[in-house]
Amino acid sequence: AHGVAIMHTDPQLTALLVDDQPFARHDLREMLAAHPHIRVAAEAGTLDEARGAISSQAAPFGVVFLDVQLRCGSGFELVEHIPPATAIIFVTAHEEFAVRAFHVNALDYLVKPVMADRLAISAARLLHGTPDAGALPDERIYLPEDLVHIKGDTAQQMVPARDIVALLSIGGNYTE
């Protein structure tokens, strides 16, 4: 699983930014400067550039900030090239890909325009990890606008955290 429950203890985590919009990479790089435990080590505007950066890196990146819709294809095409120990944080303008992102074990899903306080939550998740499956999440890591993946008996959905009053486990693997 791509860094979902990994605790990061190194002094600095290297990051790869993948977005076909240079201004989006610039904005994210500027915002990440507020998080000294994350160092942007490389940027890519295409899937080929991203694959090249991943393969040429001596040690795996700690995190890949990955746009979903690139002019040259889908960010999901890159997932199979990202080492399992590398966390993936999707950064996209499209909320509809959130469920698919969590199916590939993304650590987080940020919707553009990325807000500094929401990025800070992702940065904290990188540093401290996230709760293991089955553990109760620390409610302090969720903002009201965060989307929570709920797997019901007939469907899966993303629900804004602000709309959740209670969760009930049904059938062991499903939630109501």
Separation of the first and last Cα atoms? 25 Å
Q: Which spans of ≥5 residues are poorly predicted at pLDDT below 50?
A: 1-9, 131-140
Report strand %: 25-35%
Look at the helices and sheets and give the structural class: alpha/beta
Going across the biggest sheet, name each strand in turn.
2-1-3-6-7
Order of helices and strands: EHEHEEEEHEHEEEE
Structure in a nutshell:
The chain is α/β, with parallel strands linked by helices and 176 residues long. It has helices spanning 22-32, 47-56, 98-103, 116-128; strands spanning 13-18, 38-44, 63-66, 69-70, 73-74, 87-92, 108-111, 147-151, 156-160, 169-170, 174-175.
Summary keywords:
alpha/beta; 176 residues; 11 strands; 26% strand
Provide a descriptive summary of the structure in words:
This protein has 176 residues and is an alpha/beta fold. It is 23% helix and 26% strand. The chain has helices at residues 22-32, 47-56, 98-103, 116-128, and strands at 13-18, 38-44, 63-66, 69-70, 73-74, 87-92, 108-111, 147-151, 156-160, 169-170, 174-175. The strands form 4 sheets. Strands 2-1-3-6-7 form a 5-stranded parallel β-sheet. It has a two-stranded antiparallel sheet with strand order 4-5. The chain has a two-stranded antiparallel sheet with strand order 8-9. A hairpin with a 4-residue loop joins β8 and β9 (156-160). The longest helix has 13 residues, at 116-128. It starts with 12 loop residues before the first strand and ends with a strand. 26% of the residues are buried.
